[in-house]
Design brief:
Blueprint (H helix, E strand, L loop, with lengths): L1 H27 L7 E7 L6 H14 L3 E10 L4 H11 L7 E8 L5 H8 L1 E2 L2 E2 L14 H10 L6 E5 L4 H8 L10 H8 E7 L12 H4 L2 H10 L4 E4 L1 H6 L1 E2 L1 H7 L7 H9 L6 E2 L1 H10 L7 E2 L3 E5 L5 E5 L5 E5 L2 H15 L7
Parallel strand pairs: 1-2, 1-6, 2-3, 6-7, 7-8, 8-14
Antiparallel strand pairs: 4-5, 9-10, 11-14, 12-13
């Protein structure tokens, strides 16, 4: 009997050791997930968080976590596309396609995109870039259709951190040489998630949110008609998590001229800490399972007559919004600082 129990104990110990070793191997060498196929739609030039969000995307791509398929612009200013092109080129990805809105909103000048796009040193452009004007870039919806049509079904995450202009027009687009599908059907087939910076969902109070009310009709349309799951980072999320000026002053000095640092310094008088509205939408889109944010129950987001976003919980709803705790605020801020200031990968 003692021999039997000794044999049982040895067998149990053996199984426990094998299980432990297997756990160690999995934890030390996890199977990498496929990079998130990403499209960024931005009103680059209206606020500096768009520029930092683009830097975060490049850092995540350098880490193998995403692939930036295209950037489309909802700010109708000729320097928005050159600025995006120079940032992409700075990060050694100058071949990423860029599309621009036609007859869009906010054509006003923005020195943080104009001055870096036109800066020279000793007669040469400070930042290399091919696009000299938005007039030279393709129209955004045509580019979106072409890029989406080339991707596997249900594989693309769209991040919109500006107005809904281009996305609403995409939903209304007709079949063309890129795809025989109409816009809504093309989106339903190719897109897996829409991550937006839009609206406000704080219990402390509600107000109009810029990305929604500037092009209110298209915001209505996207919330009503977008056919895939949609997660929005509301105004209160970025407001709670500010990007520190100290990072701009210290962490971006690895080169003499850094486009994100110079843009940040041009946007407002230094030093200032700026809200991370757009960066949070990007972070959730690429790292949704890291515990950076909480999520509301499923439901439906609408925009009322006062241009204020409303949320109604519903088990059948496709919409959610981000939530955040004090502990998460600290984690997200640190992650965004590390990512935004990450140097380009070596060629």
């Amino acid at each position: 009997m003692r021999l039997l129990w000794r044999t049982i104990r040895v067998a149990i110990l053996f199984v426990a050791v094998v299980y432990w070793l297997a756990s160690v191997d999995v934890a030390a060498d996890p199977v990498p997930a496929s990079p998130v196929r990403l499209i960024l739609d931005t009103d680059m030039g209206n606020d500096i968080d768009d520029a930092l969000a683009l830097g975060v995307i490049h850092a995540l791509q350098s880490r193998g976590e995403c692939e930036l398929l295209a950037v489309t612009l909802s700010k109708d200013n000729d320097f928005a596309a050159p600025f995006v092109d120079l940032v992409n080129t700075f990060y050694r990805r100058g071949d990423i396609p860029i599309g621009v809105v036609r007859n869009g909103k906010t054509p006003e000048d923005s020195k943080y995109i104009r001055l870096p796009s036109t800066a020279t040193d000793d007669g040469q452009p400070r930042y290399a870039h091919d696009l000299k004007s938005g007039k030279d870039a393709p129209e955004a919806v045509a580019l979106l259709r072409r890029v989406l049509a080339a991707q596997p079904d249900a594989s693309v995450t769209v991040v919109v951190v500006g107005f809904s202009t281009n996305l609403a027009r995409l939903l209304d687009s007709k079949p063309d040489e890129a795809s025989p599908l109409a816009g809504r059907e093309l989106v339903a087939r190719k897109v897996r998630l829409l991550s937006m910076m839009a609206g406000m969902f704080s219990d402390a109070g509600r107000q109009k949110e810029y990305n929604v009310y500037i092009d209110i009709d298209t915001a209505h349309k996207v919330f009503a008609d977008w056919p895939t799951p949609l997660v929005t980072s509301g105004f209160e999320i970025g407001q709670a998590i500010k990007f520190p000026a100290a990072s701009i002053e210290r962490d971006f000095r690895y080169v003499k001229h850094h486009p994100l640092r110079e843009a940040y310094e041009l946007y407002q008088k230094m030093p200032y800490d700026r809200e991370t509205w757009d960066l949070t939408a990007v972070l959730h889109a690429v790292r949704p399972d890291r515990g950076y944010f909480g999520l509301s129950p499923p439901g439906t987001i609408t925009v009322d007559d006062q241009q204020i976003t409303r949320f109604a919980a519903s088990e059948s709803g496709r919409h959610r919004y981000l939530t955040v705790t004090p502990d998460q605020i600290t984690r997200v801020r640190e992650a965004l600082v590390q990512l935004a200031s990450q140097p380009p990968t070596k060629p």
